[in-house]
Amino acid sequence: MIIPIDEQLAKKLSIDFDLYPLRRYNDYSFDISNNNSLITQISYMAYNQPDKFQQLKELIDNYKGGVGSDQLLATMGYCRYMDKEFEQGLRHISALLEYNPSNIDAWIDLCFFLAHISDGYDTYLNMRFHLYYFMHLYHAYDFQTVNKQSIAILNRLVADMARTPAVRSGYDKKISFDTEFLILNGSCNNNCETCHIPFHYRAYDFEDRITQSGLVSLSHYIFIKARKKPLRHFVLKGGEPTLHPNYFKVVRAISAVRPDVTIHVRTNARTFCNKDFVNRHAAASIKKIVFEAGIFSHDPALHDSIARVQGSQAQTLQGIRNLLDSGFQVSARVGLCHKNIDSLSDTLDFISSEFQKAPGFQGIGLVLPAPSAENLDTYYPHGIRTLRDKAAEVLAGRKGESQDIPIVNNALVEDC
User: Fold this and answer.
1) Residues 133 and 250 grouped into a single domain
2) Which of the residues 79, 140, 164, 259 could staple to 373 if both were Cys, CB 3.0 to 4.6 A apart?
């Protein structure tokens, strides 16, 4: 079935309301605030131009032509989203997907609807994982090659969702999310073989994207992201987030808007070899900040081979020491892969002996590789479970520590 195009409505939306159904999204994060999508534009209108948003709703509710068109279904769905009528919004987006099941934009937005529905979060995570899987295949191969398999998986997920009454009801009791993620940039001073960021996104810069789209300034963007009342944690990611030219501006802005929120910086800690760089955090009076430092191995050669930068382990360890010596909180994140899993116990012993007694050390976490075009054949779907099981076996054999060391997957943002 081919979805009809309503040119009259499309022109009216663009001319009268400055709405354009263009998505220039960050394919590896699906962070809606990083997108210049229709749902983002309508959200911005609802927050900042409520009168105009009301006019848009009146237009859509009274519109007679082009029933079932892409423009009408999408706009109706996203207006319902802003009014927190998530059940109605799901119906419109689901109808859109019935016409065009290969519409990745609609699949991504469907995830955000699901995230707001009671008992729908597991389905949201599952679907989000498969979208990762699909998009990374999409970048590695042509669309037609992966379309049938990926769309079949997604169609099955939606069919299961529709048959589950608990997922389709209770949207008024939506989950409150307390963590905000912001991918600053794709550039990095490591070149880790487990990295989930496609190489051509190394030049990604969130600030360029939001300012070029004309939506908001950097300071206004941070204000919008940080003002959510339930917010408790703000995670800065990359690439290597500390390499972004406005990294300090972002950190200071978050701290100023929400001094009660804990800022988490996911880093390889190499930039913190420079004590002046560490001291700039102290000079900015940023109190509630935790640095989540990535380590691959106790063995310098093995760590460097996975990071694919000679000397990177030595710089990471020195960076962690500098942060701890300066009174900051630091946690260690061990990125697991087939190269380091057999020596995991030695790595945990090394990290504990180096940092466990240091004031400010927040413990260790194990991170399974997120799906990417480079590691799908190695890890997904079966290899990742083998890696997880081996890690769990190592933890089970360590007295008193297994309870304190979680195993997480970046793509699912929960235990795999």
Assistant:
1) no
2) 140
The phi-psi region of residue 272 (left if phi > 0; otherwise alpha if psi is between -120 and 50; otherwise beta) is alpha
- Tell me if 364 sits within 8 A of 406, measured CB to CB: no
Number of domains in the chain: 2
Higher-pLDDT residue of 325 and 43 is: 325
**CA 15 – CA 9 distance, rounded (Å):** 10
Q: How far is CA 228 from the centre of its chain?
A: 17
- Under a CB-based contact definition with an 8 Å cutoff, are residues 75 and 68 in contact? no
Write down the pLDDT at residue 121.
53
- The torsion angle over the Cα atoms of residues 20, 13, 114 and 24, rounded to 10 degrees, is 0
330, 256: one domain: yes
Greater pLDDT, 272 or 30? 272
Q: Among candidates 7, 33, 11, 30, which has minimal Cα distance to 20? A: 11
* Residue whose C-alpha is closest to residue 103's, from 198, 213, 23, 11: 23
Is residue 415 a part of any domain in this protein? no
Structure tokens at 172: 């008024």
Final residue of a domain: which of 149, 173, 197? Answer: 173
Asked if 189 and 315 sit in the same domain, the reply is yes
Tell me if 246 is assigned to some domain. Answer: yes
Q: Is 373 helix (H, G, I), strand (E, B) or coil?
A: coil
Q: Has residue 265 got a pLDDT over 70? A: yes
Q: How far apart are CA 4 and CA 99, in angstroms?
A: 9
Domain that holds residue 124: 7-173
Please give the residue that has the higher pLDDT: either 159 or 92: 92
Q: Do 218 and 187 belong to one domain?
A: yes
By the 10 Å C-beta count (0-12 exposed, 13-18 middle, 19+ buried), 259 is classed as exposed
Residues 168 and 188 both lie in one domain: no
pTM assigned to the model = 0.65
Rounded Cα distance between 374 and 415, Å, is: 22
**Beta-strand pair 262-267/233-237:** parallel
- Distance CA(216)–CA(232), nearest Å, equals 23
* Same domain flag for 50 and 191: no
Q: What is the pLDDT of residues 94-109, one digit of tens each?
A: 777 777 665 666 777 7
Q: What is the CATH number of the domain that holds 299?
A: 3.20.20.70
> Do 166 and 198 lie in a common domain?
no
Within-domain flag for 416: no
Same domain, 204 and 303: yes
Residues 34-73 have pLDDT tens digits of: 345 677 778 778 877 889 999 999 999 888 655 567 788 8
N-term to C-term CA, the chain? 37
